[in-house]
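Exercise 3.2. Students should predict the tertiary structure of the chain below and write it as structure tokens, then compare their answer with the key that follows.

Predict this chain's 3D structure.
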Amino acid sequence: MINANSIKKISFFIILSLFLLINYKDSLSQVQIPKATILPTDLVPLELIEQIAIHKAKERWGKVVLGHVIPCSDDDGDLIAFICPFAIGISSFPSFEEIEKEVKDARIEYKKIQDSFNGFEESINYESRDNPSSKQNTLLIQKQETKTIPGGMKFEENTVNFNEFNAKKEMLKRKMYGIEKFGTVIVSSHYNRFPIPLISHYLSPFYVNYGLAVEKAIEMLGTTSIKLERYYFLGRSRGQYFEFSSEQNKKILIEAFHLEANHQDEILTRKKQKVTPSPEIIEAINEQWKTISTIINNEK
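Answer key:
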């Protein structure tokens, strides 16, 4: 027998699924949207979640545009928060394909430079001088001819400038993660949690590493017929994970930043262990929701 709460869960899930499908089908056409079980008690309206995210983003980065929010799950697969990505300083959020291309190009260029430099490193000796800083900034290359590695850096007179090399790597890293071009605000989906568990000055790994996570899942599950089930946000200390499944219902978790493969029981260690906060924490949570809701209402 289906009780009232079950009906509410199903209804909220259908509404959210339709919202995500209708709004994201064009610019996220190559991406599967993760699902999450929605507990109706203390649920925050999605409109308010987006308003809070926009307020915080403008506060941090000035002119921003909101991309497509991504639902996140806790250990039990229940909706816990939404990832709200922002593009900074422009009026239209790029499509997933545009983001993916820029990230992929930067990743390829970074690997070329790193691989080429590793080749040089095998044939060099550290310069021996009285000035210690010179050992950190300059390498002597045993081969006499001028060398060039991808990215346009030329090493003439048998020296490699570490500063130039590291600056190029840093620039490509920033491109890979959209640093200064994107920001992310994660907003809780329920009033019984602090409103904003995380703000980051770069693009969510959901966008940055989605393609690589798919490749890793295909490799680990041994099939190209895979499905993105959930995206877990387990807090700052426990990380974020893609969950993929095969047609045989085999499942694998892929850590979102470093793409390490894990089994569910290795990561989802707090199933059915939802903790009731202390009265002091509840009071602090309520006060934060009251403050941010008042700010949003005053901005209308």
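Discussion points: The two ends are 43 Å apart (CA to CA). The CA atoms of residues 252 and 263 lie 6 Å apart.
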